[in-house]
């Protein structure tokens, strides 16, 4: 019997090695898999490359991972926030490498990895600093920049419901990077609010099919949803 | 001269957004545009984090941590709205499906270049978000900004001195002084918004030559 449901975040992340590339879902705090990040901090892996839209807010989640000095590189679109002090401090001290990527290019690079695409041409960032040194090409009179896929060793994502085959459904804007990160990582761990029986998620409403998910962990919601 | 305030600029932009348009509003002044769309006009707001049909702010106590806008503030969704993942969201932008995006800017050049993401200072933490995707992908790129810097220099320039967000993409600029179209042959004045400002005085403040029907 296939059963991808594990009993704890710690069990789901026990094998993360030093130097791994970790895709972490979430846009701000929506979709941020906080329990998985806490477990990663406790697990102790170092020299991580982290891919997220942001670079941590306040003192929890990704910010705490950076504060614990486990991250050597961040690939993101928007590190600077009013409460990104842990990233700001580490970056200014030169302890952290930043690869800044336009948000849509970040999403498409992740999608490309999951879809087996070797690279793609995008008009975004042509003629800007973020395209410096990159191959460009004019296609039908328009200028494009060559961008490469971003593969993850692990993806840590948050969904609303999951079943033992790894099928996932999300809630509202917490979906954001979850589906594309799930497909782009060798091992995807989904933190879900609720584990359900096979069939409880209508096949028409499965957003991430279980083929993209290796581990599912139920984590009770801490905060109330309206 | 009486300049427009931020809400008046937003209201002026709202006048140009037609029924049925799919629109992405940037953070800051552009967000205010939503407050000025006439009630009888149906437009669909896109939020880059995965919403079509973005609604107004929720009432106090009705916030949901899973439902936020691009500025990470609590949001709502309208009847008929939809959620989708980030690659689809930016596919809408890059794929030319968004009719209008409204962005703030540090500078706009006469050829339509825009600079709005980075001051270029060495110790400034760079952050780009979705600005470059919107600049490159939306069918029309509207910019809202104050016309002049605090030092009185025009933000509409011959060439941007700040790092670029996108090249030759801005179609129209709304400032506290005027509305200006950017076309292949340069800047065209649409209208003067500041009360008591003459074309000659605007031209002097603007620096870059403006074409003006009445002056032609």
Secondary structure elements and pairings:
The complex is a heterodimer of chains A (226) and B (216).
Chain A: E1 5-6, H1 9-13, E2 21-24, H2 34-43, E3 48-51, H3 62-67, E4 71-76, H4 85-92, E5 97-100, H5 103-115, E6 120-122, E7 136-139, E8 142-147, E9 152-162, E10 168-169, H6 178-184, E11 185-195, E12 215-218
Parallel strand pairs in A: 1-12, 2-3, 2-9, 3-4, 4-5, 9-11, 11-12
Antiparallel strand pairs in A: 6-8, 7-8, 9-10
Chain B: H1 6-15, E1 22-25, H2 29-32, E2 44-47, E3 51-54, E4 77-83, H3 86-94, E5 100-104, E6 107-109, E7 114-115, H4 131-137, E8 140-144, E9 156-157, E10 170-174, E11 178-183, E12 186-192, H5 199-206, E13 210-211
Helix pairs in contact in B: 3-4
General description of the model:
The complex is a heterodimer of chains A (226) and B (216). Chain A has 226 residues and is α/β, with parallel strands linked by helices. Chain A has a single domain (19-218), classed as Glutaconate Coenzyme A-transferase (3-Layer(aba) Sandwich). Chain A has helices at residues 9-13, 34-43, 62-67, 85-92, 103-115, 178-184; strands at 5-6, 21-24, 48-51, 71-76, 97-100, 120-122, 136-139, 142-147, 152-162, 168-169, 185-195, 215-218. In chain A, strands 1, 2, 3, 4, 5, 9, 10, 11 and 12 form a 9-stranded mixed sheet that branches. A 3-stranded antiparallel sheet of chain A has the order 6-8-7. In chain A, helix 2 links the parallel strand 2 (21-24) and strand 3. With 216 residues, chain B is of the alpha/beta class. Chain B has a single domain (6-215), classed as Glutaconate Coenzyme A-transferase. In chain B, 18% of the residues lie in helices and 26% in strands. Chain B has helices spanning 6-15, 29-32, 86-94, 131-137, 199-206, and strands at 22-25, 44-47, 51-54, 77-83, 100-104, 107-109, 114-115, 140-144, 156-157, 170-174, 178-183, 186-192, 210-211. In chain B, the strands form 2 sheets. A 10-stranded mixed sheet of chain B has the order 4-3-2-1-5-8-10-11-12-13. Chain B has a 3-stranded mixed sheet with strand order 7-6-9, with no helix packed on it. In chain B, helix 5 links the parallel strand 12 (186-192) and strand 13 (210-211). In chain B, helix 3 crosses helix 4 (131-137). At the A-B interface, helix 4, helix 5 and helix 6 of A face helix 3 and helix 4 of B.
